[in-house]
Amino acid sequence: MIEATPIRFFENKPSRLSADGKLTDSFGRKLTYMRISVTDRCNMRCDYCRPSADAYKAEPHAHILQYEEIERIVRIAADMGVSKLRITGGEPLVRRDLPVLISKLAGIPGISDLSMTTNATLLAKYAEDLADAGLNRINISLDSLNALRFRRLTGGELAPVVAGIKAARAAGMTPIKLNTVLMRGINAGGEQCEVAELIDFAMSQDATIRFIELMPMKQGMYWEEHYISIDDVLQREDVRSRVDVNAPLVTGNTAARYLPLKSGAGEVGFIMPMSERFCEGCNRLRLTSDGGLRSCLPADDQLNLRDLIRQGGNDNDIRSLFLRSALIKPEIGIYDFTADSEKRSMIHIGG
Ligand code: SAM
Predict the structure, then answer these.
(1) What is the predicted pLDDT for the residue at 79?
(2) Which atom of ligand 1 has the smallest separation from the CA of 214?
(3) Tens digits of residue pLDDT in 313-327
């Protein structure tokens, strides 16, 4: 259920945060990037994202923002300085007519970058329509190249994902980024480590791979058992023979740090939310599928844009909620490591 956030219509006076009308938080960080979850439904059930299928309940359809509501919110956000959008979920491609939303958002003045994160199972069907609608780039989750392990971890099939990667390339989406969450005992650490194989696969697909440290989202026990640091992974011989670990880490324009491949054929990305916090440069806001506005992934303070809109809030009210969200963005995001934490899971928030 969405948090019963009390709706407050803030006074329409200039916030101390908004001398130039742009979203800046209390620590001087410009909030220019918004992740938009279009659904909390997914056709996979990745253990790290939706820890227990039994405990997971999707929001009723009526709670989910309509495309017109998302478009209105983004117009205002863009006017306040948000220029970069990423569509996510749940699985965004299970939402009907997603290309319609993409073309609406691509046409909003001020939006210069529109990307999506997907599990790619349905991408072969939609890649061309998405590219035509204005989707620039795509990130595809890929945690294993072993079909059996893939099925065990995600509940889905590997083959359509590989077909989706090829379809994205054929549709001209560049760059294609593959995202792998590292899990000890599953795809990293010991014999079953797939890091080297995944690097080779990414190169063969003309894609950039990024390895992500597992975050404790509502499943402290799972995290404790499976977390492995990037640093640990970089000690492996098969990784060191491919990646120049002595090169300086290059900071991209996102949370990722990059190291060059020894072959000279590209780079590998590392996202280290646990071992190297990147809160200092965080420029993110999140819009959940049920209209919650969040300014920090692990902080559960979210403001209710959906009810504000549905109860007749005007554009200035929406602007005020954005300013409020910037104001409550913490300097550092705090993860809860306890097994019974009541925090929302990734599928609910939108990764
Ligand atoms: N269904 C889409 C997908 O699979 O890419 C989009 C949503 S998914 C929640 C977005 C990203 O969040 C994925 O790359 C996933 O691997 C990542 N993610 C989910 N739970 C995570 C966790 N506990 N730690 C690190 N990354 C996580």
Answers:
(1) 96
(2) 24
(3) 999 999 999 999 999
Comparison of pLDDT for 127 and 281, the residue scoring more: 127
SS3 264: coil
Q: The domain at 16-349 falls in which architecture?
A: Alpha-Beta Barrel (3.20)
**Ligand 1 in contact with 273 (CB < 6 A)?**
no
172-207 confidence digits (pLDDT tens): 998 999 999 999 999 999 888 999 999 999 999 999
CA gap 317, 69 in Å, rounded: 14
Nearest CA to ligand 1 atom 20: 49
The verdict on the CB of residue 40 being under 6 Å from ligand 1 is: no
Q: Write down the residue that tokens 């997907």 correspond to.
A: 118
Task: Output the CA angle 175-195-171, nearest 5 degrees.
Answer: 25
- CA of 91, closest atom in ligand 1: 1
Collapsing DSSP to helix, strand or coil, 12 comes out as: coil
* 38-54: average pLDDT: 83
Q: For residue 11, is pLDDT > 50?
A: no
Mean pLDDT of 278-292: 93
Long-range contacts of 274-278 (CB under 8 A, 24+ apart): 274/213, 274/214, 274/215, 274/227, 274/229, 274/335, 275/213, 275/229, 275/230, 275/231, 276/230, 277/332, 277/333
Sheet holding 137-141, edge to edge: 250-251, 257-260, 267-271, 208-213, 176-182, 137-141, 113-118, 84-88, 33-37, 284-287, 292-294, 302-304
What is the rounded average pLDDT of the residues 106-127? 97
- In the block, residue with structure tokens 């259920």: 1
